[in-house]
Design brief:
5-stranded antiparallel sheet, 19% strand, 2 domains, binds adenosine-5'-diphosphate, 9 helices, binds magnesium ion, Phosphorylase Kinase, domain 1, Transferase(Phosphotransferase), domain 1
């Protein structure tokens, strides 16, 4: 990171955040450094000077293709997102511009009629990938699927609601008692069905790694690759999502239904039955 960018970062980051104190500051800076290039720093700094975000207060996760951070909304951000208050932290997901591989994402773009024309240059692809997640989240949120409400997308930077409790991000799916497990499986399958039938989407990367649990309720996250149901590989993706979920629950002692039965119910049965 260039010295100038580092200075901007210092301005962006809020050292006094309650949640951040639980983490090591050094670790945060290394994560930030790995994910953020000069252009991204400028976008974030622009969002800050426009009053959309206030400060970035911590790192939630850092993967090969993205970094996920906790931040606070600024006064203009509150106008964009009236159901959130100035104290409510939000999530900033930053798509890394250096690691996105066209071959790995092509099958989720080609065939989705919403994205007929696009440039294959990496920077443009990252922008498209972030925009795709924003649009999928909006569509799902409007349809009543449990997903983080998206706030704004600017190039490779996506702002969304935090799925958290008291400002602390919720944990990924992890089930314990047999009874709770059975109920959780049913809730997840119901979400997949609403996603398919009301939002017209298939998640296409569904696994316990992309499900957060808040107050015993599952929330689906990470939707860049999600496709509309008319996509030529829609069936294959839905089958894969179902198999991943059913496999996970079967390894936790749940008597899982056949994937074909669930597939049929999602595609054909009444919305209320699962
Ligand atoms: N809206 C959110 N609220 C709380 N935590 C989130 C949110 N979005 C992402 N996370 C956390 O960040 C991690 C990575 O986000 P994800 O969207 O799955 O990105 P990736 O493409 O890197 O897998 C998730 O596993 C989750 O722990
Ligand atoms: Mg993920």
């Amino acid at each position: 990171m260039k010295p100038d960018d580092k200075r901007i970062w210092e301005k962006l980051s809020d050292n006094n955040d309650r949640w951040r104190k639980k983490r090591k500051g050094k670790e945060d800076f290394q994560t930030i450094n790995a994910v953020i290039d000069g252009n991204t720093t400028k976008i974030l700094s622009g969002l800050q000077s426009k009053g959309i975000i206030d400060a970035i207060s911590g790192t939630i996760a850092s993967g090969k293709e993205s970094g996920v951070f906790l931040a606070n909304l600024g006064p203009k951000g509150i106008v964009l997102c009236q159901d959130l208050s100035i104290e409510s932290p939000i999530v900033i997901k930053i798509f890394r511009t250096s690691t996105l591989n066209f071959r790995s994402i092509e099958k989720y773009i080609t065939g989705d009629i919403r994205f007929k024309k696009y440039s294959k240059k990496t920077r443009n692809l990252v922008k498209l990938w972030a925009e795709k997640e924003y649009r999928n989240l909006s569509r799902s949120h409007l349809a009543g699927v449990n997903v983080p409400k998206p706030i704004l997308v600017k190039n490779n930077v996506l702002l969304m609601e935090l799925i958290g409790e008291d400002g602390i991000p919720c944990q990924l799916l992890k089930v314990s008692s047999a009874e709770a497990t059975q109920i959780m499986l049913k809730s997840i399958l119901a979400q997949i069905k609403i996603l398919y039938r009301k939002a017209g989407l298939i998640h296409a990367d569904l696994s316990p790694y992309n499900i957060l649990v808040k107050n015993s309720t599952p929330y689906l996250i990470d939707m860049s690759q999600s496709v509309i149901t008319s996509h030529p590989k829609a069936e294959e993706f839905l089958e894969r999502d179902l198999n991943n979920i059913l496999y996970y629950f079967s390894t936790r002692g749940v008597n899982t239904p056949e994937a074909e039965l669930i597939f049929d119910s999602i595609v054909n049965d009444e919305l209320s039955s699962i």
